[in-house]
Amino acid sequence: MLESEYQQRRRLPRHLREAPPEPAEFSYTLRAAREADLPAVLAIYRHYVRNSVVTFDEKAPTLRTFRAQFSHTQKLGYPFVVAESPAGDILGFARVVQFRDKAAFRNTAESTIYLGPAATGRGLGRALLEELVERCREAGLRELIAVIADSGAEASLALHRRLGFTETGRMGKVGHKFGRWIGIITMQKSLRKGR
């Protein structure tokens, strides 16, 4: 038996230990999404499709379908924002889509926000949603609707509340994923006053 195997290891006192390395600063740039970003955006979304109930999709769209959706929202002038790391990696995204396809809903959009797993808990969700709200105002949208799963999305609910979304309704057991029933909570934020 070696000496190191039977002697208890000694630990240096705290003041003599090397300081742990400083954590890398979490930084990003928010910008409008480009078509070249779509594979990375879709990879983030696929993570949630496969591992959570925050999206009711059971199968992620193909890149071709996602490109068509992107093109459609671009034609409508709807914002789609990505957070990009200094290294050029997409950390998360926020976008809006048509709330309903009837013309009377043209000033109302449904918001969506997703973060890459390594980017959660760092304030990025708030930054993305704030940017999305501001860009929606600039685009002339009047109302934003968020449709959020009633389980597994507590952080999303809290974020929307902090940014002025109010709960407007609940529906129980309207979706079925991973062998369980899930409800939704709708939240709404008015972007303009008056008519």
Low-pLDDT ranges: none
CATH superfamily: Gcn5-related N-acetyltransferase (GNAT)
Q: What is the oligomer described by this structure?
A: single chain
Q: What structural class results from the helix and strand content?
A: alpha+beta
The number of E-state strands comes to 7
| Estimated radius of gyration | 21 Å
* Largest pleated sheet: 7 strands, mixed
The number of helical runs is 5
How many discrete structural domains? 1
Q: Provide the CATH top-level class.
A: Alpha Beta
Brief synopsis:
By secondary structure, the protein is an alpha+beta fold.
Helix and strand layout, with pairings?
Elements: H1 3-6, E1 29-32, H2 38-51, H3 63-76, E2 80-84, E3 90-98, E4 108-115, H4 124-138, E5 143-149, H5 154-162, E6 166-177, E7 180-190
Parallel strand pairs: 4-5
Antiparallel strand pairs: 1-2, 2-3, 3-4, 5-7, 6-7
What do you see in this structure?
- The structure is a single chain.
- By secondary structure, this protein is α+β, with helices and mostly antiparallel strands.
- The chain has a single domain (27-190), classed as Gcn5-related N-acetyltransferase (GNAT) (Aminopeptidase, 3-Layer(aba) Sandwich).
- Helix content is 29%, strand content 29%.
- It contains five helices and seven strands.
- Strands 1-2-3-4-5-7-6 form a seven-stranded mixed beta sheet, with helices on both faces.
- The longest helix is centred in the last third of the chain and has 15 residues, at 124-138.
- It is globular, with a radius of gyration of 21 Å.
- The chain starts with a helix and ends in a 5-residue tail after the last strand.
- The mean pLDDT is 92.
